[in-house]
Amino acid sequence: MALTNADPPQTFLAISAALVAVALGLAWAAGAGMELIGCALLAFGIQWLAFVPSDFLQDERGFDLIGSLTYVTLMIFSLSMGEGGPRQLLVTTLVCIWAVRLGSFLFWRAARRGGDSRFDKIKVYPARFFNVWTLQGLWIFLTAFAALIVNTAAPGEPLTLLDYVGAALWVFGFGVEVLADAQKTAFNSDPLNKGRFINVGFWAMSRHPNYLGEMLLWTGIFLIGAGTFVGAQWLAILSPIFVIVLLTRVSGIPLLEARADKRWGGDPDYEAYKARVPVLFPRLTPPPRG
Fold this sequence. Notes:
Elements: H1 9-29, H2 34-57, H3 63-81, H4 86-113, H5 126-143, H6 145-153, H7 161-189, H8 209-226, H9 238-250, H10 253-264, H11 268-276
């Protein structure tokens, strides 16, 4: 049963407690020591501190920016607790670059729009708003899980071929995400495109190229550490799996596809676009003729 704002605050607080338990359980199961548990607690602690002024002001515009700053803080914190070798420096740099870029982009977009409509019916209910911040803490921890294991548990050994392959995949995915976001921003900024769906650039090959880039770059982060994982540390694979499942089955593509269908469904151009352009991975062969 879906939760509503009418549900009692205790329900949302219980969910928040369960989310924290999940993160701590995974941190313990990965066998990376108390350092990884400390990372989980830090991720939640930052969100809860940020929740206080956000709830008082009923202002969610800093939500994404706080999320990005949390990634940076976690990576620097975890780096300081490990061996600090070239692999650790590499994943820390890559995650921080991604976080700063995406966080500033989302913050600028929310500020330009005057807020984030996702929070309109949530931020007036403190317990539910708190639950969202806690959920962000879990999201950050799970997404960065592989990188955090690398920083806290992997040996500080020289880079291998697999590390370079992972880094190359990250660079490719990051480039796709950045260019796709830039193309969509430019498209939506043109008054001539008001009310139209984007079908140019990367968006002419994939209906969600920014999400494709996101999945590829986090898979790259996992590959950078894959050559060092032992035993339960292989739980690090939950990082790219979590990103892929979240974007393809939960909050990313399904929501945007439903929103687009509601807005443009029945439009011949849009229906032709959907038939021609895959949801995620570009076709290697021409689409079948109708």
